[in-house]
Amino acid sequence: MVSVTVAVLIFSVAFASxxxxxxxxxxxxxxxxxxxxxxxxxxxxxxxxxxxxxxxYDKLARYNPDQSNQYHLFTxxxxxxxxxxxxNNAASVTGSNFSRNRRTVVLxxxxxxxxxxxxxxxxxxxxxxxGDFNVIVLDWSAGSSWGPRATQAGQAGGRFINWLNNLTGAxxxxxxxxxxxxxxxxxxxxxxxxxxxxxxxxxLDPADRWDTNLLFRPSDGAYTEVIHTNGGDSGWxxxxxxxxxxxxxxxxxxxxxxxxxxxxxxxxxxxxxxxTGGFTGRRCDNIHHAISGHCHGATLRMGxxxxxxxxxxxxxxxxxxxxxxxxx
Length: 328
Ligand SMILES: *[C@@H]1O[C@H](CO)[C@@H](O)[C@H](O)[C@H]1NC(C)=O
Ligand SMILES: *[C@@H]1O[C@H](CO)[C@@H](O)[C@H](O)[C@H]1NC(C)=O
What we know:
This protein is an alpha/beta fold. It has a single domain (69-317), classed as Rossmann fold (3-Layer(aba) Sandwich), CATH 3.40.50.1820. It contains eight helices and 15 strands. The chain has helices at 54-62, 65-68, 90-94, 118-130, 150-168, 182-193, 259-276, 287-292, and strands spanning 25-28, 35-39, 45-49, 51-53, 70-75, 78-85, 104-108, 134-139, 175-180, 200-204, 224-227, 243-247, 280-284, 299-301, 313-317. It has an eleven-stranded mixed beta sheet with strand order 6-5-8-7-9-10-11-12-15-13-14, with helices on both faces. Strands 1-4 form a two-stranded antiparallel ribbon. Helix 4 (118-130) packs parallel to helix 7 and helix 5 (150-168) crosses helix 6 (182-193). The structure holds 2-acetamido-2-deoxy-beta-D-glucopyranose (NAG) (2 copies).
């Protein structure tokens, strides 16, 4: 079995970027321009073709996330070296540090990401600092260079958790699913696939240019929260959860000059909220007020390790331009 030491491995993805002229276009997966530049977690730009071609259907048919998804377990007993849990291999679980008596966090990276994405290296240690969790890092790098595969990768993740729960007696309510960017939609599909109601789902700046039929939904878990930090650019601007936070208006973050920096702030804020709390938001009457920051309603804290069942609405708050980001 292969294990990953998250802090040490260097992110690298190889891209095949041939768009043969004899590859007929048969549809689109998002509106707008055919070609787009998207940045991966490391800040490298990749040319992405938003139109579906015969070759994409062919690749999609061969993509089997039930086989290619990898599940790296971290706990306080093994905080930096993972134990790999393998679907239909009970010994991989019973021989690991997984405990059904702990809550389980599942982390789902974004476009062109992997187990070693900066999203994982920021959020994994923050969860282990916040509580005695099982943390499972889902590595779907076999599919992540084509963003829409987050849907299939998330569904396969849900099937894996159903198997894990059947084996161990863990229940959906004790799960926290946390996804970033396209993974922010993927965790919605994971939640829908899991038997029972997932206790807490966090969608961090869920990606823009996403099929409106496949968006994250408030009903994907018992409590769902979305943090918007680059809405209308890399991220989806409109509300998608039970609760939606619009720090600094949800699009441009203080201290950032690039879209990638704005986008990544979503997990920087979450990581800080897990370690030290803070980030008190004020409820807004509507999306316009959330974007413009005219919000004077009830308070609610963003992120953190515990769900806020029953809470709904849009919230605004202001952050500092660097750590500590929270103003309390
Ligand atoms: C964690 O797993 C390792 C490897 O199986 C084992 O040696 C260790 O005792 C476990 N630790 C705890 C606290 O269960
Ligand atoms: C889990 O157990 C239920 C009830 O026994 C069964 O219907 C289901 O197929 C099982 N799912 C998996 C993924 O093993």
